[in-house]
Each structure stands twice: as structure tokens, then as C-alpha cells.
Amino acid sequence: MSKSTISSLFGGASPFTSLQQHMRHVLTCVREMPSFIDAVILEEQDKVELLKEKIFTAENDADRAKNGLRDHLPKSLFMPVDRRDLLAVLTTQDSIADVAQDIAGLFIERPMSVPEPMQKLLVELTNSCVDVCEHYGKIVEELDELVEMGFRGHEAERVEKMLEQLNLLEDKTDDQGIELTQILHRNEQDIDPVSVMLWRQIIEWIGDLADNAEKSGDRLRLLIAR
What we know:
Blueprint: H1 3-9, H2 15-30, H3 33-41, H4 45-72, H5 83-109, H6 116-140, H7 143-148, H8 153-186, H9 193-225
């Protein structure tokens, strides 16, 4: 099935194309996170503010793309996948940008210094989580080819291997998050109690970037399988 044939089924752009466009906005948002965390560590508040604005702008762009896809998705037209499954993928991948916005917003509401023992692994965890999101983004970019092949054959096998790799990459971030939390606990006597609580939340949220990318991949796997 050619792309023009796919588009004609939907009276315009394929919803898979819209899903890809949405994920590109999500990645624009997430890609600011390493620089944002670096600025937080260096206590460069002006840069923190600037990057927060970039993250919020990209998240708003993702929301507009999400709402556009929802509003224009056919309700009673032939589709190669279940409408509900497609919306589930959209919702889960949108949550990646939501979490990035939450992280940035928290540091604006309550600026905090990063305890020195946590700095190196915080950077590593953030980079690893962004890598997971990037990998998921590559899977989404394969959707056009996958639809053309009827969700079968070599392309389907290739995507399945990419999904397996996604799970392995996310596992690494789980280990890093646990280690970072342990470092926090070992040093919490030097941190005020409110900051300890907030750092636990931040570590969890950074991990959620990767976790939500993995969940999006799992939903994509179900969509493809059906």
C-alpha cells in the first residue's frame, strides 16, 4: 500500500504521520533536559529559566499536535488499526513531554542545589532517559514503512527487535535511578527534609521519561499485533 493510498483512506494525512509529528515535538521538549540539568547543577538560574521556557513551548506544541490528531481522527472509517489503540499510544507518548514540563516547573518553583555526590549520576540518568526516548522516537518513524508492509514481514521483525532494545535501555535507567536514590539516602542528613522529599520526586520523574517511552513502545506493540 503506497503512502498516497494510505492518505486517501483518511481523506488527508495518515494518523500515523500525525503521531510521528507529535513525537517530534515530544523529543524537542525532552532534548532540552540534559542542558537543563547541567544548568541546575551549575546554579545558572538565568539559563534554567531560559531552558524552562523552551521545554514549556515544546510541550505546548506537543499538546496542540495531540489535540489536532484527536480532533481529526476518523470515528467510523476503515483503519488498519483500532482507533482506541492509536489514541492509547498518543496519550502515553504525550506523557513524556508532560513529565519534562513537571521537572522544569518544579525547579522554577523551588530552586535547589544538587548535592555534589548526586551530580555525576544525575547527569548520567538524565542522558540515559533521553536516549530511551530517542530510541522510541526512531521506532515511531518506522510506522509508515510498517503500515505499507501490512504490519508483517521484515519491517515488522525489525520494529520488534527495536522494541526489545527499548526495554533493555529502560532497564538500565531503572538501575541508575535506584543507585541515585541510594546516594540521596546516604547523604540526606546534609539536606533539608523538604529537599530530600523533592529529590525523590525528581529522580522518579526523570526515570518516568524512560518509563513512559517504554510504555508507549508496549502500547505500540499491542497496536501492531492486532
